[in-house]
Design a protein that fits this description.
The chain is mainly α. It contains three helices and no strands. Helix 1 crosses helix 2, helix 1 packs parallel to helix 3 and helix 2 crosses helix 3.
């Protein structure tokens, strides 16, 4: 359970920084950006479980790295699709 919480925290942090990075172009999509970051972090954390370098039950540094990369990729894709 602590692994999932760390993934969500990573997604929120990455989502916050990306929303601040594009704040000049942010059109009221702050919470949507945070949500996309969290979703990407969860997908990244699950990928870490598939590769067997992390677990959702315990904290794993590699799973957090996967979650950060997943959140960043999700936000990059979101920005490309929306055109922000």
């Amino acid at each position: 359970m602590i692994g999932v919480i760390s993934w969500l925290a990573c997604g929120l942090i990455v989502g916050y920084f990306v929303s601040r990075l594009i704040s000049a172009q942010n059109k009221g999509l702050f919470f949507l950006t945070l949500s996309v970051g969290c979703a990407g972090a969860i997908v990244g954390g699950m990928c870490a479980q598939i590769v067997a370098v992390g677990s959702s039950a315990t904290f794993s540094f590699y799973a957090v790295i996967f979650a950060l990369v997943g959140a960043a990729l999700a936000l990059f894709g979101y920005r490309r699709v929306v055109g922000v």
